[in-house]
Amino acid sequence: MAELPELLILSQQMDYQLQLKEFAGGDLRQEKSLNLSPGDFLETIKGRKVLKVYNKGKWIFIQLSDDYHLLLNLGMGADILYQEAGQSPEEYQCLFQFTDGSAFTCKFWWMGKAEILPDKELPQHKATKDIAITPLDEGFTPEYLQELCQSRSQIKNLLLNQKKVGGIGNVYIHDIVFRAKIHPQSTANTLSVSSVNTLHKIIQENLKEAIELGGLAYEKDFYGENNGFGTEHFLVAYKEGEPCPECRNTIEKIKTGSTSSYICPRCQKL
Question: End of a domain among 93, 124, 155?
C-alpha cells in the first residue's frame, strides 16, 4: 500500500506530466468508486484543465480550472498510470483522457476512490478535511510531535492516525519505531522529551531515504516503473524470525490492535 513517499513521488510526476492538459472524456467502469454517476462525472470533468497536482496525506489532489478538484485515493493499493497518445491502456476501473490523446488510468486493488467536487466543498469533504500535516511539511516540528505525544494513545496508533500525522502507514512505521528504540505499544505520554525528539528525526530520515530511492520497489510510479526501496532496506519490518541488525536477537511479529508489528523485543522494551 502506497504511503507518503510513494504518493509524494506520484503527485510530483503527475504535476509535471499533466500541467495544463484538458480533459476530453474517459471510461469509468466502477461506479462504487465514484461520488457521481459515470455520466455526470465525465460531463463535469470535460473541458477542465489540470492546474496543479499535489498530495494531502494518502490522497492525490488534482486542482482543475474553473474552481474544481479531482480527488484520488488509492485505497489498499492502486496503479495510477500515464498513457502516451496512441498507447493502449491495460486493465483499469477509471480512464481519464485528454484532448492531446494522452490519458491516465486508475486500477484500484481494493477500496479506491475517484471524486470530483467544486472547490467550495473541499473544506467540508468528509474524507479529507481532517487530514493532518505530513512529516515533511514545514509545520511538523519537534514541538508539534511533542504536543501530539501528550496523548495516552499507543505511539504506533498515534503515528498512524491520519488526523494527527498524515501519510505514515503500516509499512514504514516498523523501522521508524525500531530505530527510535520505542516499543509500538508504548503510551505516547510516557516517552521522554529526548525520545520524542529522536523519533521526530528518524521519521523524517526514513521517509526522505525512501523518497531518494524512488519509493517502495513493489509500487509502480506514474510511468509504471518499480523503484528501489526493497526488502533489503528494511531493518526489522517483515523480517520475522531473522536476527535483529543491532543485537542479533530474533525479530518477532506481534499483534498491535488491528495491525501487526515487527519488533526486536530486546531493543524495544515495553
Answer: 124
